[in-house]
Amino acid sequence: MNPFDAVRSPEALATVPVCDRCGSRIAGLCQPLDSAALDEVSSESQQTSLTAHSMVFREGDPAGRIFTLVEGFAKLTRLLPDGKQQVVGFRFAGDVIGYTTLPTYPFDAELLTDSRICRLERGQLDALLRRYPVLERRMLDLCVQELTATQEQLVTVGRRSAEARVAAFLLSLVEASRRRGKPCTVLEMPMTRADIADFLGLTLETVSRSLTAFRKRGWIREPVHHRVEMVNLRAVSDLAEGLS
Amino acid sequence: MNPFDAVRSPEALATVPVCDRCGSRIAGLCQPLDSAALDEVSSESQQTSLTAHSMVFREGDPAGRIFTLVEGFAKLTRLLPDGKQQVVGFRFAGDVIGYTTLPTYPFDAELLTDSRICRLERGQLDALLRRYPVLERRMLDLCVQELTATQEQLVTVGRRSAEARVAAFLLSLVEASRRRGKPCTVLEMPMTRADIADFLGLTLETVSRSLTAFRKRGWIREPVHHRVEMVNLRAVSDLAEGLS
DNA sequence: AGACCGCCTTGAACCCGTTCGACGCCGTCC
DNA sequence: GGACGGCGTCGAACGGGTTCAAGGCGGTCT
């Protein structure tokens, strides 16, 4: 155990072990913090459990809080005036949700599964950022990562064929799982066909047809609902690259 | 004039006036700096002029430098294995180009016009960020802005019809011009139809047809090559919103 | 059990944007 | 001047993905 543990308050003892297993500690905002700083962050933040389909926040809500997804899956969506929605991203354990410089959140954040989230008031975050410059640096790094991923997604949606988009989506799930330290061929995929379609700029029928095609070619399996097994990762990534 | 000017070195006197008119000072990284800090930044950075079609850097180059576009226009592109390119964004006077946490640049940066750029070695930037926390904050803000714009672009490419995408593109030009403090109905548009098409996930023919359609409807004019006049901004933004 | 509902799958027809081809315009290079 | 190449425009045919429609499967509620 960490040598700092001995001097922690009982309160901290209760909260920190939770933090140690949090995705944020592994790949997210809290990764660069030492134990003392982690204590402070964790004592200022509020952990809550929420059920699937809860809204963490809505597009247009005042952006007064920042969230970390401790466990679970979420989707971020923007609504178009004509009613169609675009999924701008999915979020996994450890990811930060809702950091923006805008006065209001620019998208909806909806949980796809029962989840645990960690909540911080905006003012508290700003104070922490001032106190621990390493946190601000970390925010910037995460933001740049996010920007790169979104640009990648732009390429996917803008230039790839339907099947190549679905293949690229599967690869992004593999990558997200790897980043969380679980390199595994069987992946959680809690999003519906419609969610995936809205992410890829396709219809749910096309997504369904593509996944069926992959299954028939023996590239993937779906042992149970909302779980994919990547059988032939190479074939999928070749298709995503357009080498078809 | 600024009271700090009196104590400046002759060298600073030569460089700072340039900075004061730089786009970065108005809308970019240097915006929050006081005169003393601006002196330091400007003395560490190298200004150069480059001609149209120069590459600022290429995808895969070691990301050792950060650039600010002082004057001019640039496009950022990613190349797909099959040879197609996706324009991931355009950059205008004042914008930062090439900041990444990755070891290499994730896209090409090519100038569309003769431009002036301001160059900073990565190590110098890191030192400045440590010295002036306000700069790090500013980087984060710019990154979040950029992320929001890219997500907006994702919606455009993913869910809008061809004409709506072109309309949205025109609006983004208006917005970029406004941000640089030049709210004007006649805009520079140095990119070719092919560039626009690659940005919007369309072909150049479709872009050409859409712009022709807008012209025939009297929504825009193109008085000279590479310049658009927004005659009926309302009609364009209604189309972009999908209210057609 | 039966009815209902959300989600997924599959088929067939259609349509929007692409592809392919041709041409015009303009600037540059022999 | 003439040839060439980059860029933009336009028409006709094609095709990938959408739209529309029907049906299946697995839950949950009554």
TrEMBL record, chains A, B:
Matching InterPro entries: cNMP-bd_dom (IPR000595), cNMP-bd_dom_sf (IPR018490), Env_Response_Regulators (IPR050397), HTH_CRP (IPR012318), RmlC-like_jellyroll (IPR014710), Tscrpt_reg_HTH_Crp-type_CS (IPR018335), WH-like_DNA-bd_sf (IPR036388), WH_DNA-bd_sf (IPR036390)
Domain HTH crp-type positions: 160-234
Top-level taxonomic group: Bacteria
Keyword tags: DNA-binding, Transcription, Transcription regulation
Alphabetized Gene3D superfamilies for the sequence: Jelly Rolls, Winged helix-like DNA-binding domain superfamily/Winged helix DNA-binding domain
Start and end residues of each Cyclic nucleotide-binding domain: 29-102
SUPFAM superfamilies: cAMP-binding domain-like, Winged helix' DNA-binding domain
Protein name per Swiss-Prot or TrEMBL: Crp/Fnr family transcriptional regulator
Annotated organism of origin: Paracraurococcus ruber
